Amino acid sequence: MTADAGAPVVLITGAAGGIGSALAKRYALAGYRLALVDIDETGLAALGAALRANGHEVTALPCDVTDAAASRAAVVSVIREFGGIDVVIANAGRTHLSFVADTDPSVFHRVMAINFFGAVHIAHAALPSLIERRGRIAVVSSIAGFAPLSGRAGYAASKHALHGFFDSLRGELRQSGVTVTLVCPWFTRTAIGARALGADGGPATLERTEMGKALEPAHVANAIYEAVRRRRRLLVLSAPGKLAWLLSRVAPRLYDAIMVRRLAHGEHE
To answer: Catalytic site residue 255?
Structure first.
């Protein structure tokens, strides 16, 4: 199904790979016009060209979402081209693999800038259009958004911050018709681990492990699409993810013990 001039518009950050590109393809199949945002200009251009070749309407916007002015300019450009925005999916993210005592504080700032402020910048800029169109916001968080994560304290902090901000925003938007969906995937086959920052801000050197079977980006994208379509508040993916959610609330000490033992050098997405 291809888009037409009256088709809804979705803006996706971190769109050039992994879950982001899978989301672009899923929304394209649903007939949306696509506004794709990423700092990776090469990957973004390739994805945009592939989607256009299949008849989909796409605007690809290279943008560093940590820059509030650049994020606002990207949103203005999308609205100018498509007339408005119906769905915003804040997906751009970065992680680190390092223990707090060893980590330069600049690493925590970098992770927070991308994961938290990147989502805030885009959503804030798009709010007037979303309110006008009674739209939807989706934020890709993590299991680390509600539970601690050894060796990724900065990452967990950024994801916890997303929940605090966007759960609060949901309340402020209650009368507007705009809904907010927080998404907490389990391990997913993406490049986030390979691009992890180390303690000094360079490539990570800690060993990366995973727990359980990793999800495929297409599976995660389809689940996000359905959750946003139904205007769900929270999406926690996979049985292990749901168990982690439960244990972190009813048996936090047990969760801590399991996490430290099995994920001391692991990676949540």
So the answer is: no
In three-state secondary structure terms, 210 is: coil
Buried b (16+ CB within 10 A) or exposed e, 241-263: beebbebbeeeeeebeeebeeeb
Q: What is the pLDDT of residues 202-220, one digit of tens each?
A: 877 665 555 556 779 999 9
Spatial strand order in the sheet of 33-38: 58-62, 33-38, 9-13, 87-90, 136-140, 179-184, 234-236
Contact 82, 35 (CB under 8 A): yes
- pLDDT tens digits along 82-102: 999 999 999 999 988 889 999
> What amino acid occupies position 193?
G
DSSP state of 267: -
Q: Is the pTM value of this prediction over 0.70?
A: yes
User: 27, 155, 225, 255: which is the annotated catalytic residue?
Assistant: 155
Which residues are CB-contacts of 25 (< 8 A; sequence separation ≥ 6)? 51, 218, 221
C-alpha 190/C-alpha 236 separation (Å) is 18
CA distance 251 to 212: 20
- pLDDT-based confidence at residue 193 (cuts at 50, 70, 90): low
**CA 176, 178, 184 angle in degrees (round to 5)?**
145
